[in-house]
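Internal tracking record. Fields below are filled automatically when a chain is submitted to the structure queue. Please do not edit lines marked as system-generated. If the sequence contains nonstandard residues, flag them in the REMARKS field before resubmitting.
Queue: standard
Priority: normal
Entity type: single polypeptide chain
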Amino acid sequence: MQSQTEQMEPQSIPYPEIPFVQELRNIKLVLAYDGTRFHGWQIQPQVLTIQGVLQDTLKTLCQEEIHVFGSGRTDAGVHARGQVAHFKTASKITVPDLQHALNDLLPDDIRVYDCREVDSTFHARHSARSKQYSYSILRRPINSPFRRCYVLHVPYILNVEGMSSAARCFLGEHDFTSFCDAQDESPSKVRTVYISEVHEEGRTQLIVFRVEANGFLHRMVRAMVGALLEVGRGRLAPDAIPTKLEARERISVPWTAPAQGLCLDWVKY
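SYSTEM-GENERATED OUTPUT FOLLOWS
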């Protein structure tokens, strides 16, 4: 028979093993791309996209599944000089080696200009404060075949002064429902525009529309350009832009400029 002391001895309880969780590195990329042959930024089945190519390349380099987040989605045919993206990885590859390897493996129409490790809280889209896009219009009678993928060719006279005046009407905070795709699912269509200007380079006959805002709706810039071109052709008065904004109806701005003239210039954080 066991003694009372033996009966009261506590049994040893094994502690569960705590799994080791490796902290992921957060990597920020600044990249440029020629969007001509891509179906936009966002990954889609059975078609070539910027995000898809980046993820496949990083999977090869890091030997793990990678999800790349961009500052925003560019449409098919739209270009970028300063798109920003980020991804998290357990890989120990150094930042200089990563940038070098990416530019070795990526196609020639995608380049990584900057690569750095950032704070874990950084998010390419959610941390962005503003973005700037530019849209290029060429007024020459004949367009160069070497520029056809990067400008909108408009071989007729435009009232550039009227376009410039109309562009200023976009400045400030407005509801841009009239200037976005009807399928845009953003809960709010209100955006604040900080820069909206039309500049003409007389020698080259190139007209450039630049716009900076705290965010953009789907096809918003292209709809703005469509309205500005209507002003340039005399079909719309410059002071009609506020009325279009107040209408908050997509049908009030029926024409959207094509993709090839549009470029994402930079993202500010």
